[in-house]
Design a protein that fits this description.
The chain has three domains: 117 residues, Acyl-CoA dehydrogenase/oxidase, N-terminal domain (Butyryl-Coa Dehydrogenase, subunit A, domain 1, Orthogonal Bundle); 89 residues, Butyryl-CoA Dehydrogenase, subunit A, domain 2 (Beta Barrel); 172 residues, Butyryl-CoA Dehydrogenase, subunit A, domain 3. Helices cover 50% and strands 14% of the residues. The chain is built from twelve helices and twelve strands. The chain has a four-stranded mixed beta sheet. Strand 7 and strand 8 form a beta hairpin.
């Protein structure tokens, strides 16, 4: 049997894609790019994200959420990547996941319904720049309930209502307007986001009640999987647009897509994108079912997605010829977003090192790499139809 999205997940995928196609396309993305003074959060888009339930996908039903899984959230992340969609969706979803996984009942009741509805925005700071994707890379230091440290490249911190900050002993909630918190916007090459540096100097932090190093690692892994799916969405869109363009771009009296060198390279890229899609889909599924090889699957997905998106977006520029290098063409949207996300929550080198550690150390929670890549782990949930290759995920 094939591993495939359910009818409900396909309907979610179609709904997200249709909305973005009809109401928030490249023209709206370009307007946000060129708005130097804007906060990077299109009001109508954010309202729709809340109303459509795309923020509530992982929030339990008892807190006004939908109560679905990572595979469902990954469907949204992939569509957002393909559309280079701006806004604090990722930070808000991850803030909700932190509170769901480690928060007390009171903390969950206070924040999850608001985050699910889009009434509150979240931002997360889980790793220092270039840190290995583990709790050792936490950017803050906790001392007696106060936090210190520099948090770099935090997405949408300037509009967040709550910050989730990782320290050496777990996760903390921090008020962006609290004493000891300084938020300084920084210029981002990728204008589909807004980045800031946060300086904590004795800021009060509210520790999530069930927080631990394991909770930090769980949140990092979930972030990596969502980013991997964003990246494969970018890669597939870049490849599709390049193929369509090279069918009609003519040189020497023939479409350039018919030239053997280009044709073969794009065929190889199609295989790479397809395998990255499968790896990212399986990683989300592995987290949903707590598969024995879940950690391995996360690192395979993130490393493969980062490499593939970099190749797909750079090829998009090259195979569009001169127009691909210009500001007027949309290719740079994809290239810049892929370059930013390639390093988020561990780059390919970090995750390949983690793969090596898992396999060479003989960890019992890892299975052979081939099993994760082929998505051949047996078993299923309500969010999955059958097992095998994720042919229906794209």
């Amino acid at each position: 049997m094939e591993f495939a999205l359910t009818d409900e997940q396909r309907a979610l995928q179609d709904a997200v894609r249709s909305y973005l196609r009809d109401r928030f396309g490249p023209m709206q993305v370009r307007a946000l790019y060129e708005d130097a003074d804007g906060d990077g959060v299109p009001a109508e888009l954010w309202k729709a994200v809340g109303e459509q339930g795309w923020l509530a996908v992982l929030v339990p039903e008892e807190h006004d959420g939908i109560g679905l899984g990572m595979l469902d959230a990954s469907v949204i992340a992939r569509a957002f990547g393909a559309g280079t969609v701006p806004g604090p969706w990722l930070g808000t979803v991850l803030a909700g996941e932190a509170i769901r996984l480690a928060g007390s009942p009171a903390q969950q009741s206070a924040w999850l319904p608001r985050l699910a509805a889009g009434e509150a925005k979240g931002a997360v700071a889980l790793l220092a720049p270039n840190a290995f994707p583990s709790p050792e890379g936490a950017p803050a230091t906790a001392t007696g309930g106060t936090l210190s440290g520099r948090l770099d490249f935090v997405e949408y911190a300037q509009v967040a209502d709550v910050l989730v900050v990782a320290a050496q002993d777990g996760l903390y909630l921090v008020g962006p307007a609290s004493a000891g918190v300084e938020i300084s916007p920084i210029v981002a090459l990728d204008r589909t986001t807004r980045l800031s540096t946060i300086t904590l100097d004795g800021a009060m932090g509210e520790r999530l009640e069930a927080s631990s190093r394991a909770a930090v690692q769980e949140l990092i892994d979930r972030a990596a999987v969502l980013v991997a799916n964003d990246l494969v969405g970018i890669a597939r869109k870049a490849l599709t647009d390049t193929v369509e363009y090279d069918k009609t771009r003519v040189q020497f009296g023939k479409p350039v897509g018919s030239f053997q060198a280009i044709k073969h390279d794009l065929a190889d890229l199609h295989v790479a994108v397809t395998m990255a899609e499968h790896a990212a889909t399986y990683a989300a599924h592995a987290l949903d079912i707590d598969a024995p090889d879940r950690t391995l699957a996360v690192s395979i997905a993130k490393s493969k997605a980062g490499d593939t998106a970099r190749k797909a977006t750079s090829d998009m520029i090259q195979y569009h010829g001169g127009i691909g290098y210009t500001w007027e063409h949309d290719a740079h949207f994809y290239f810049k977003r892929a370059k930013r996300l390639e390093y988020a929550y561990g780059d390919a080198a970090h995750h390949r090192e983690r793969i090596a550690r898992l396999l060479l150390d003989g960890r019992t929670d890892s299975k052979p790499v081939s099993g994760a890549v082929r998505a051949a782990q047996p078993g299923g949930t309500a969010g999955v139809q059958g097992t095998g290759v994720a042919a229906g995920a794209a």
